[in-house]
Amino acid sequence: MSTLPKIAWIGLGIMGAPMAENLLKAGYPVTGHTLEPDKLDRLAAAGGTPATSIAEAVREADVIITMVPASPQVEAIAYGPDGILANARRGALLIDMSSITPQTSIDLAAAAAERGLRVLDAPVSGGEAGAIEAVLSIMVGGPQEDFDAARPLFEALGTTIVRCGPHGAGQTVKAANQLIVAVNLQACAEAVVFLEKSGVDLTAALEVLGGGLAGSTVLTRKKTNFLTRDFTPGFRIDLHHKDMGIVTDAARTVGAALPVGTLVASLVAALRAQGDGGLDHSALLRGVERLSGHTTG
Q1: DSSP for 22-41?
Q2: What's the average model confidence in pLDDT over 23-38?
């Protein structure tokens, strides 16, 4: 029998499924719940235990991890008679790894404390590839002692693990991360179209750019997407649109100006309105191509 904490995992999507599987590989017993039966089959094939409800998944868990798309989904699985707070045992640690508003995390921590539950907000960066390879960056908000307790678990999921402050701090840092990624993607997309319309060998150009000051994790991870126009989603435009809403709203609340970020948020929204919301966020290239009258045939 494993002496590691028993994990309940809620949300087995593009990110959640490989993350749960990495915990299984590290020896953690994982019981999972999601709304998609095929994802439960995948968990079972990896050695996990499927649960038919949230209540069943969390009842005996020492640690409950949630990874769902946005604040409304976090609230839906956390609250109510069938939710996490009503069914988890006292003393359990709830780690929300979704990307949601800082205020939602703060409110969840307060509500959970009334039920005797501890909470960390721990959103991640690195996309599907980072989730699969267990090299995510994990930005955490919550008490130091809870962070220390969760650290071995985080180390099975990522390589950069930092406590950023109290409840909500992890989400605030994630919002800043998404701002930087979106602006970087937009700059890369504009550079790609500029290079192609100038008749430059794009493969060679991106290789040399990636080795200089213009290089970035974004360019390294998304270079193939740009070269092949393969926008199979690792992180969907729909989700980045949601995240840009979070960062622009949070910045307005604290009085921080986002002149470039606001423009890129509008470009992400425009791409989504044009029907590309289900594509990878590197599909910002399509928006630049349309504005430039550029096609690659």
Answers
A1: HHHHTT--EEEE-S-HHHHH
A2: 96
Q: How far is CA 73 from CA 109, 124, 163, 175, 268, in A?
A: 16, 17, 24, 18, 22
The beta-strand segments (E) located in the chain are 7-10, 30-33, 49-50, 63-66, 93-96, 118-121, 124-125, 136-141, 158-165
Task: Give the angle 195-125-103 at the CA atoms, nearest 5°.
Answer: 120
Distance CA 258, CA 266 (A): 12
Which positions ≥6 away from 278 have C-beta within 8 Å? 233, 236, 237, 238
Q: Which residues are catalytic?
A: 174
- Give per-residue pLDDT as tens, 219-232: 999 999 999 999 99
Q: What is the mean pLDDT of residues 243-263?
A: 96
Nearest residue to 26 via CA among 139, 145, 134: 134
Terminus-to-terminus CA distance in the chain, angstroms? 58
Instruction: Please give the DSSP secondary-structure letter assigned to residue 283.
Output: G
Half-sphere exposure of 8 (CA within 13 A, CB side): 29
How far, in Å, CA of 108 to CA of 115, rounded? 11
DSSP 256: -
At residue 13, does pLDDT exceed 50?
yes
Q: How far apart (Å, rounded) are the C-alpha atoms in residues 73 and 276?
A: 22
The rounded Cα 202 to chain-centroid distance in angstroms is: 30
Gap between the Cα atoms of 118 and 110, Å rounded: 9
Identify whether the C-beta of residue 190 lies closer than 8 Å to the C-beta of residue 289.
no
Q: 152 in the Ramachandran plot: left (φ > 0), alpha (ψ -120 to 50) or beta? A: alpha
